[in-house]
Fold each of these.
Amino acid sequence: MLTIDVEKNGDVAVVRCGGRIVRGEEVRTLRSAVVSEKSSRIVVLDLSEVESLDAGGLTTLLSLHQWARSRGVQLKLVNPSHFVREILTRTQLDHVFDISTLDHALIVLGGNPCCHTRLAATC
């Protein structure tokens, strides 16, 4: 099962994913969540809570990468879980995607990382 939480701040959308990004309903849910943010200049996919990623999930990430590029939207992958990082490295897709930490991405984008982190007690 895939859970998605979207937080919008100006023209930046942070899409937090948890669970499994696998062929079927999960990839359709992810695609729908990202594509619905087409008015955003930047879409950040937080993959820190993703436990599993199969070929269908990889294909969807690549498809979303192409979708974003064709619309002038920046797609950033942040905080990939150890499993996801390993898959991206083995498939050499870590050279295709813009991958960083959420805090780093938000600082570069001019946002306040404190206000986007669930772990922060106060800003």
Amino acid sequence: MPAPMSRFKAVTFRLLTFGIGCVIALLLLEGMLRIYNPFGARIRGSHIVLARNRRYVFRNHSLPKLDPVIVETRNSLGFRGPNPPADFADDLTIVAVGGSTTHGLYLSDDKTWPAQLSDLLQHSLHNVWLDNAGLDGHSTIAHIALMQDHILKLHPKVVLFLVGRNDMAHTDLGDFDAEGLKSSVTFKNPRDFLFSLSGYSEVAALILDTYRAVTSYRLGLVHENVDLTKQGYENPSPLEEAQYLEKHRRGLPGYEARLKRLIQMCRDAHIEPVLITQPMLAGPVVDDVTHVDLAKVKVSPHNHCNGEMWWNAQELYNDVTRRVGRENGVVVIDLAREMPKSSRYFYDFVHFTNEGSQLVAEIIDASLCPALASKFPQYSAGTCAPVPSVMTSTTQSGANN
């Protein structure tokens, strides 16, 4: 009869067995996710992969300001909107690029601001084609990859960039959307290893999706109904405010460099770039619906940030957008200052309601239409639409200053 294993050997055997079991389970999960991944990973290796010819239907039970049934359709390009026209080179072709506020995840196809902007432009310009290439969570890091992988090859005449929101979050999120944009796996430390591996492993990508969801929730980067009357107020100390802004200032040089790169990529491809600043339901104004002070309102249950702090940080990035556009001769549409801070237009602090999306389209159209008519006079069909009356009303003037 064999001698019993020592306690050390028994523990070692159990650990080895457990480790082998975990490896086998991970390999099985990896194989299953490669065959069918219900989570729809958008990044493979160093490239962005777009879902093409798909239709999604969402049942909305938690956002009362939005439709109960929401339909999102992806065309042959993987964008939201019509398929490319047969005479693509002859049309006034436009692509809107941005994060969640462009994507409009919880807005039906015809309710997103790019779709409504397309309808408005059709009244004043001939042969307009406009698609929505916004993707939730993406910042200028991923916009660069999207341009390289998809948009430069498509070669539209104009690209609209609504930017600044997700770049603002990069000081906390790190490589929120950069993990799959690296060309090789790095072993520098466990965190970077997992981020870089996610470009090649479905399991690693799923782990990071969970991490991003938790982190996004803590930063307020989620889609949820916000009842301003129940948020409460936050009164951070001057030191907390200074530290918060200083943290965000550290991200500005990288953001500026990426904006300049996007502009140069467009110019090199003979594409006209347009920059749009990011609005927010926060700042030094009282909401006209709930009468909540949007400067003092608490924007997240996980930190001591109030609306004024959040808005001041966002304006750091908007100021870079304004300056880079001005210095490079790029049209800048200052949506951040022109969009009224009213809860009738937002269902949380950053995402638009159906009514808000319509107003965003009208504000952008008021500046974009004359710019396009001047740059591309061959498409002009008449007078551009007037400035929306809400932008000039006495009650809203100065709301975003």
Amino acid sequence: MWFKPIDNIGLVLWRIVFGLLIALESFGALITGWVKEVLIDPVFTFSFIGFEWLQPLPGYGMYGYYTLMGLCGLAIMLGYRYRWSMLLFAVLWTGSYFMQKSAYNNHYYLLCLLSWLMIFLPAAKDLSWDARALGKSQNRMPSWVLILLIGQVWIVFTYAALAKHYPDWLDGTVIALFMDGKKNYPIIGPWLQNNTAQQIIIWGGIFFDALIIPALFWRRTRVAAFILSLGFHLFNSIVFQIGIFPYMSIAFALLFFSPQSLRQKFGRWIIRFETPIQNKLEQPHWVKPQIQNLSPTKQPWIPALIVVYLVIQVLLPLRHHLIKDSVLWTEEGHRMSWRMMLRARKGITSFYVMEPGTGVKSVYPLRDLVTQKQLKMLSSHPDFIWQMAQKIKAIEAEKRREVGVYVRSRVSINGREYSPLIDPDVNLAEEPWDAWRHHDWILPSPF
């Protein structure tokens, strides 16, 4: 099963779309000012804890950084020096992901995973610069390629469906909050405030995430599922403006359609691309695919490695169940868990410093340290609050001043009343961080 040779046209077309999308994501981050706002303007960035050494390049270096990522995307699309282009993009994108989380998005994490997976896939064996340069191409791949990619995508959508099974999503609280911010959208804005429309979004989101992969698998429902996928993801793109993820999700369908169908749809373009190097006189392979008679290399460690990887991907989103209290309140175990579009957090947070022995606390000014975007996250997320406390401690230490850092924070989840989040009597400057356990300075959930 793992090494059965199958037509690779779905993977090859996916590579082309993937390269185009990551190029648009990279260049778009420059054009829209995202790079400047998130990576250049801040005095410092809130990196993932443990990656504080990973900071943006000084000056306008991040412009060059993202330009290079965009060029890698174009090279991947063309299949030019594919392995190296894919490796470079994976390194750069992962670096950008870990160096800041003020603009955290589950889709950025998915792009990290896919980028590293794509390095090892034979995605440039056909319809690529590399294949033309070698004067040959391959139109097959081992089955484990599809098992790996579809397994990864299935895990994402399954957890997205499971995470929605909680009261604030099911009773419409979350969607009502989200849609209230869209009421001024032209044409669809008023419709999005309608209760019936919101119920369609609530239950449509659950059923779509849970069933779209099986529906794409089954030949009889594949076309209908693809049309539904188009509508669902284009709606998300327009309403929620979540970058390339909707279009990447649409492109996932290339992995499900039969190679014969894909070659018939794209056949003329494929033949035009391949003719100069293959000089084919026989019937075009997009009419009847010709699988090359090459013996597959069977390496037993590949299935074992894929199984281990997918098991980790299944288990990692469950880790919050091993951590005390609700992840909705503490955020512990939230990231990398496909908990997408589930909650709205607002907070009011103040930092205080106290010199040992004095007992006097004074408000610490943050205005010159954080941007408005960072402040929004800082006000309601415990890990941001802890990192800010460490930063204040370091700043004061440079002044040869040892201080304790205390926090008063009140947070509202999904429109509820504000409740205390942080124990105001705990010196956060002296508290350690452990990503795998609960921190007792986070006060108990009020719900």
